[in-house]
Amino acid sequence: MIRANLLHLSYNMWRDTEPPAGCPDSERDIHYRPSLRCDHALWRECIGRMSDAGMNMAVIDVGDGVRYARHPEIAVAGAWTVPQLRDELACCRDHGIEPIPKLNFSACHDAWLGECSRKVSTPEYYTVCRDLIEETVRLFDGPRFFHLGMDEETYAHQTRFRYAVVRHADLWWEDLNFLVQRVEDAGSRAWVWSDVLWHCGRDVFSRNMPRTVLQSNWYYDVKFPEHDAPDAVNAFAWLEEMGYQQAPTGSTWSSRENYPLLVAHCVRHVSQANLLGFMMADWRPMTDRWRSVHLDAIAVASAAHRDAVPPTDVS
């Protein structure tokens, strides 16, 4: 079973500007920064702790944290070189951790794309996306999965952005399927966040989302009602009914209780065949300020994973 942790090499995936004067400390991290925010010592400590805790996968938000050969203009100051990245991937594997790349192509989370984030759905955009996917698959030596993100592309999530983009009608689905095909052409399997399901409905989702795409429905609250549940909770059962494989995602972002409750809920509602595992996402930059949060999230996930024994059938 997948026991994954989301790690941020890049953290330029929210606000598209640097922190303005007077920006409160609580918001500074989510603003764009022109240099890498990844403490190497903490990164290595987290990999070691994950291994000790029985976790077996690191989903790495690569973004602008690597100097790509084909698009070096994307890299921020201090981005890892290709040899540095390969060294860290080898370190993961030495610790029994499978490294999986993540490039979030949601227009809500693509500040890492630099100027190209303002060229969504243009011929140049498609070329850059294809190039980055192909190069990243090679850098990760043919990963089993490739996370494409694609969450929260709504205006409500971009009201504090300088440049907001929302693909309407069929364009979002066309671009998603373009990205999925590029991943499959490169020899990997696409993985996405599932929150579009909350908004589009099961019929639209089922018609447009390929069954091959691994789904990570995410939910960070502590309420998992059996009746009158929010769509974010119902989506786990909906995905099961539609036959999608899942790696549900929880977090310590709001509460340490969320993750074990999410694991217990999904074990009850997702079949063993479709429940590939779980992912922890604490959503903090890899900086020493957040060291205790990172290590606590690993401990919380480890304890929950020990109790995750999926049933053969879901009634």
What features would you describe in this structure?
The chain has a single domain, classed as Alpha-Beta Barrel (TIM Barrel), CATH 3.20.20.80. 36% of the residues lie in helices and 11% in strands. The strands form 2 sheets. A 5-stranded parallel sheet has the order 3-2-1-8-7. The protein starts with a strand and ends in a 9-residue tail after the last helix. The model has no long low-confidence stretch (mean pLDDT 96).
Features:
single chain, 315 residues, alpha/beta, TIM Barrel, 5-stranded parallel sheet, 36% helix, 11% strand
The SSE order reads: EHHEHEHEHEHHEHEHEH
Largest sheet: 5 strands, parallel
Shape: globular
- Low-confidence segments, given as residue ranges, are none
CATH superfamily: Glycosidases
The beta-strand count equals 8
CATH topology (level 3) name: TIM Barrel
Q: Tell me the β content.
A: 5-15%
Number of H/I helices? 10
Report the structural category.
alpha/beta
Q: In which range does the helix fraction lie? A: 25-40%
The end-to-end span amounts to: 21 Å
For the residues shown, what is the average pLDDT?
96
User: Regarding CATH, which class?
Assistant: Alpha Beta
Strand order of the largest sheet: 3-2-1-8-7
Rg over alpha carbons: 18 Å
CATH architecture: Alpha-Beta Barrel
For the record, the count of structural domains works out to 1
